[in-house]
Amino acid sequence: MMLPLWAQAAGWGLLSGSALLLGAFVGYAAPLPQRLIAAVMAFGAGVLISALAFELMDKAVERGGFGATAAGFLGGATIYTAANLYLIWRGAHHRKHSSGKQASEAEQQGSGLALALGALLDGIPESIVIGVSLIDGGVVSVVTVAAVFLSNIPEGLSSAAGMKKAGRSKLYIFSLWGGIALISGLAATLGYLLFRHFPDSVIAATTAVAAGAILTMLVDTMIPEAFEQSHAFAGLITVVGFLCAFALSKLGG
């Protein structure tokens, strides 16, 4: 029996979000070299850049036109930047860093909450577009799910390693990422339920908002942290990630 589409959206969102928990487990339990973690982050960044270009922006323009897409894209970047500046002020500047730069609660009170909010800020736009992708014909964008899943692994891995070095407890770390995984499923469900009755221009703008937020997140957090450790190889690894997601997009099309 086929599951209702809202349940499918929840399942796909939960699946992509579970990669955060998987990455967190590896980052906490296995003392991986800093350069390996950075390389995985660079690969994940390339995957997401490809997905937002070909799966989000391109399809948003086809659906709602350039005007709605451009407005949403700039709006998403602006909203993310404003929220990120607040979280940096609260102590979440190095939330994806694995080498011990994260502020502990003793060093900056409220930084733990800021880290949690930062994880939500980074993950919710990706989950929403997974749900929105089901609006077209009831078939999820497998490329988008794969891209989010692959990029979430290094995000959870790097952040959990940094949280451990900042002295945060195992309970805190796994409760945070487990909670984010559940919220990812909820966000994907809401993405489908809330936007399926809206006109194409609104859906296109919403997809573009997510794309703008994701690209801003990559440039502000993932790519700088990846480059800091992998240096000259960061660009090459990012290109490999982009190419893998691009191939998935073409094979899926």
Poorly predicted parts? none
User: What Rg do the Cα atoms give?
Assistant: 17 Å
Main beta sheet strand tally, sense and closure: none
- Overall helicity: over 70%
First-last Cα distance = 26 Å
Secondary structural class: mainly alpha
State the order of secondary-structure elements, H for helix, E for strand: HHHHHHH
Q: What is the typical, i.e. mean, pLDDT?
A: 81
- Please state roughly what percent of the residues sit in beta strands, choosing from under 5%, 5-15%, 15-25%, 25-35%, 35-45% or over 45%: under 5%
Give the number of DSSP strands.
0
Could you say which overall geometry the principal axes of the C-alpha atoms support?
A: globular
Verbal overview:
This protein is an all-alpha fold and 253 residues long. It is 81% helix and 0% strand. It contains seven helices and no strands. The protein is globular. The two termini are 26 Å apart. 58% of the residues are buried. The model has no long low-confidence stretch (mean pLDDT 81).
